[in-house]
Amino acid sequence: MHGTSISANSTIDVIIATRDRHELLLRTIDSILGQEYSGTVRITVVYDRSPERPDLVRTSDTRPIRVMSNQRTPGLPGSRNTGLLAATAPLIAFCDDDDLWRKDKLQRQVQSLREQNATGCVSGIEVHFGDSRITRIPEVAYVTEDDLAGSRLTGAHPSTFLFQREHLLSEVGLVDEELPYGYGEDYDLLLRAAQRGRIAVLSEVTVDVLWHPGGSYFSQRWQAMADGVGYLMDKHPSIRANRRGAAWMEGQRAFALAALGNQHTAARQMAATSLSHSLLEPRAYLALAMTLNLIKPGTILRALNARGRGI
Q1: Mind listing the pLDDT tens digit for each residue in 59-88?
Q2: CA-CA distance, 83 to 174, in Å (whole number)?
Q3: How is 127-153 classified by DSSP, letter by letter?
Q4: pTM of the model
Q5: H/E element holding 194?
Q6: Inter-helix orientation angle 264-277/243-260, to 10°
Q7: Contact (CB, 8 A) for 135 and 174
Q8: Which of 116, 244, 263, 289 could hold 200 in an S-S bridge, CB 3.0 to 4.6 Å?
Q9: pLDDT one-digit tens code per residue, 257-298
Q10: Between the CA of residue 161 and those of 15, 100, 164, 288, what are the distances in Å?
Q11: How far is CA 253 from CA 49, 56, 128, 157, in A?
């Protein structure tokens, strides 16, 4: 199913899920208010397990802001769904609460969506990590299920997501709130959207993604990754059917198990499974090195993040 008629200035509902990052959130909001897009852009800020900030409410004909609390499962999926179900515009977009949109993001993406008769559009990002600046743009014309089964397409970041709301709700469905810790919710949503519609790629950087050194190295991250990867592989058989994708996901899970520190046997077993699909999978070797205490997970992550990559 391809897109229905969308005008060059259709109203867009932008959903920002947030928790205790007010100063970063203000910068994000400013970047959205400053869009050159000629249509109305309505911002909905959804607070998750933190008090609402009514002082953010803004009355405007073209750039209003409303705030609400997560009414669903605590976490990012429930927060995004709260905003999604409150949206009424023909188009919806997501933005993380610490990312910045470039001024022509919406204008260029709506143009691409219309030209390609697409149900959704993603674009490129520039990752900021310390003094590093790394450009990541998906090297495909459209995002397909096969693409995503073999690669996460890091450039197709959720802060670049733009969807036709009606198609998303009726054909794709809500963000999956059953995902352990909400891990990979954006990947899962994009995979389902690619299965059911045409997702155009705007091969330009439209979002600055801010990665914060030390900001996400918490112990629960590894359990979330281990559980979430297993869930995603069970949910999407196309990943297991793709040798590259299976090696990547199982290598990621092996890394997470090794990083936990008390799951070394399981980590080695998962690394072996990963390598049985591809001997070139680096995550499996990194996991094995960690089980031998040759390297620490934080050291690996910092090196990868400096290159605009994650595990």
Answers
A1: 999 999 999 999 999 999 999 999 999 999
A2: 11
A3: EEETTEEEEE--SSSEE-HHHHHH---
A4: 0.93
A5: helix 185-196
A6: 170
A7: no
A8: 116
A9: 999 989 999 999 999 999 999 999 999 999 999 999 999 988
A10: 11, 13, 10, 35
A11: 28, 40, 26, 21
Residue spans per domain, the chain: 12-211, 219-305
Residue type, 239: I
Rg (CA), the chain: 19
- Read off φ and ψ for residue 201, nearest 5 degrees: -115, 120
Residue with tokens 């014309």: 141
Whole-angstrom Cα distance, residue 303 to residue 273?
25
d(CA 73, CA 44): 18
For 97, the token pair is: 């609460």
Tens digits of per-residue pLDDT, 46-61? 999 999 999 999 999 9
CA distances from 184 to 68, 101, 142 (A): 24, 22, 20
φ/ψ (deg, to 5) at 2: -95, 180
- Could you give phi then psi for residue 104, rounded to 5 degrees? -100, 15
Q: At what angle do helices 282-291 and 297-305 cross, to 10 degrees?
A: 150
The closest of 222, 218, 221, 248 to 233, measured between CA atoms, is: 248
Q: What is the model's pLDDT at position 217?
A: 39
Token pair of 236 as six digits: 């999407």
Whether 277 and 247 have beta carbons less than 8 Å apart is answered as yes
Which of helix, strand or coil describes residue 208?
A: strand
Q: What average pLDDT does this structure show over 186-193?
A: 96
What's the CA gap between 147 and 236, in Å, rounded? 13
